[in-house]
Structure formats: C-alpha cells, structure tokens
User: What shape does this take?
Amino acid sequence: MVETIADMLRALWPYLFSILAIGAALYTSVRAILFKRDPRAAIAWVGFIWLVPFVGPAFYWIFGINRIRSKARVLRAGSARAGAGDLDGLDTPTIAPLRELPEELRTLERLIAKVSPFPLRRGNRVELLENGDAAYPAMLTAIDGARRTITLATYILDRDRVGMEFVAALRRAQERGVAVRVLIDGVGGHYSYPPMEKELARQGIPVATFLPTLIPSRLPYLNLRNHRKLMIVDGVCGFTGGLNIRQGHEIERSAREDAIADLHFRLHGPVVSDLQRVFSRDWFFCTEEQLDASFFPAAPEASALAGDSLARVIPDGPDNSIHALYFTLKGALATARRRVRIVTPYFVPDSSLMSDLEAAALRGIEVQIVLPAKNNLSLVQWASTAQLWQVLEKGCEVYWTPPPFDHAKLMVVDDQWTLFGSANWDARSLRLNFEVDVETYDPRVAAEVNRKIDDRIRKARRVTLEEVDGRSFAVRLRDGIARLATPYL
Assistant: This one.
C-alpha cells in the first residue's frame, strides 16, 4: 500500500508542481497587472513571473510591492483617528485673492490647492538666511526671546559645539517657563554618538524620536524618515529650509573639508501656524500628546510682524500627502513661460520629471539646473551624471558648483514663484520620506533667491553634453548601473 502511494506521488508530482507553479504565476500576474501603475513595470514583472517558476512570484511579493505607502498609512492611522492627523486650520483660513497673480500662476495655484491641505495665505514675511552663519544666530536669538512655546523638528542634531548651543538655549527657555518640544529623526539622530536625544532627556527637555531604528547610523537610504526641518517660536516666528543643526553648516567658522553650504528661511505671518500644524501632527504620532491652543496664538498676534507675501505650506510624505511635491514640481514646469531655476544636492528625478524638464527646454524656456560638483553620496552622483545627457541634449543648462557641498533646495519660476524647504529632486524626498516645502508668490523673494543662484552660477562650471558623453566606458557603465537604483535613491 505504501509503495502504491509512493508510486502515485512519483507519477503525479510533475503535474502537481505544474499546477502550483501555474497557480502562483497566475495569481501573482493578476496582482501585478491590477496594481502596477507603470505598464512597462507590469510587463517586466509578468514576464519574470512566468519565466522563472516560483522564484518569479516570490521575488514579486518580496520586492515588487510598494509597502512604503501602506506602512506609512498604518503608522499614521492612530494620529488620524485621534484628530491630530487633521491638518485643517484651527482658525479661519486666510485665503489670498488671486486677482493680482498672472494667469499661469493662477493655474499653478489651483493645482497646488488640490494637493496641499493648506490654503494660500496672505500677509507673510519671508527672509532668507545663508548657511548656519546667519541662520543659527537668528534661531538662537528667537529661542532666547521665546515667551510661551518652542517646537523644533530636525533630521540631524549633532553633538558638537552648535548642537550644544541649541541644547543650552532650549534649557534656558524651559527654565523660564517656555513649553519646549523637540523631535529628531530616528536615523538622523544617530549621526553623532551618543545621540542628542539622551542629552536633551538628561536635561529635562521633552524630546521624541521619529521611528526609532536599530539600523546602524549614517544609513542614507533608509525609508520613512522625517526629513523636515522646522522651528516655530511662540507660534508666530518660523524657520524652515534645508539646514540640519550641525557645526559643518557654519561655512565661515568651519575649516572642515566636509563643510556644507545651505539656505534657511525665517517666516512671520499666518503661514507659520501651518508649519506648527505639520509639527503638531508629527509630535502626536510619536508621543500621542496633542499640542494645546497655546502653541497656536490668535491671528492678530500672529500677524504683528507679517509682511505682504502670498505663501503656502506643502507637506509631503508616503501617507495621505504622497505626491504633493511631485505634482507641484510638474505643475511648475508646465506653467513656466520664461525661466526655471533649480538648485538641489540630489538630482535623480524619475523619467516623467525628466521629460517635463526636456519639454520645458524644447518650448523655449530657459532651464538652469545647479548641482554640486562633488556629492557627499557617490552613488547619487553617479546616477545623476548618467541622466544628465537627457536634459543637456534638449537644451537645459547644467552647472556644477565647487566645494563646499551645496545642500540648498530651491526652485524659481519666471522670477515670481519660489519653492524652498527640505525636499530634493529624488525618489527619497518625493516618494519615500516625510518633507515640507513652502511656496511663495512674491517677486521680491524670487529676486533675493535669484541673487543666491547667480552667485552659485558665477562660481560654477557649466557641464556640456560632450563632457558627459566623453566619460570612459568604465565610468559610463558604473554610472549606468547606479542609475538602475534611481527609484530608491
């Protein structure tokens, strides 16, 4: 009897194997066809699934499913249920009339109004601060002048002279009775050891870590990081931009080879309350503490130091706000009429954004892209260089700036619209991490940012198509292989 069953199994196993292989391939193929948004990716996966039985379906379920957004939504679900996930204003929205905007900017504003939870707000003042040399003294002065509340979110807070100056200022503020809250990313917080979270906690300053991880420090390709840089004082003065808190950002005082140039912005006006709401949601997610009304002052007090800039906060992340900045960039490129200027440290856009840049140049738009000549992430630089021929061939101008490494993130369109904040032109910022940018419709802000871009271009070397095409075979192969990782850089 046993031999009979064994004989039957030996005779049937090829058919059973085939049925299981076909079933797995069929089920997985249906999943890929239904949920892969890119037809080329769907075709590639379906081919791999059928050509490599069992292995193909297994690879799809491990690597082919984008779990980033679903995981982010699950992580955010608790705060949303508690009400902290609601980014709607606590006061009456200060919606700016758009009559004074050119038609193309009204078109852009309508697009961004549909992807950002915040309205365009009138009555803001935007000031540019270059490097830590200007930004840190302004931020420390604001902390020392705080009367009620300070909220600070940063990707990196180093244990160095600058980091300790901030800790001391925050401690002094708390001793004066100011309510202080500090949020540090779980990966960025480990760029120095021991982490500054321990020092803040030791000094009694309320601190939280965004998604703590046991992954080794300095891992730049980990997903779901909070890359936002925010500081809000008394709910009326806000700081945001690209600056982390570390000594290397002080260009004039730093003799280090790894010094990092950057730009930060100080804001006053109603838009600051929206920055506070972004922080409040992140803080609740990490601590389940709902910030009370003292963190959101009344409108008259918030507008006491305001100006006349139109501005809006654009949060972005792999939760419900996914693709907000992605569509903002695409809309800005589509509505440009004369000139587009881009400054970014990490330039590895996807094929759709590359096509938009090319199309803008072909329409006769002057497109200038300013990048660091030597990147702090070699893999990103290789992948970026592998793509440059596409925009150079269509007439975009590309400039490589000399050291120090330029970490600024800027976009100016037609000398009227400016975008600044924490996001880069890469998949990590536009799809995988949590970011925040601010848009302004103000020719004066655009003119000031343009002067900084002009300074960079004067010192830069213009990249030519011949130079990119003239790389050796080994270098082009290396860069091309790096480009395959573009969706994850």
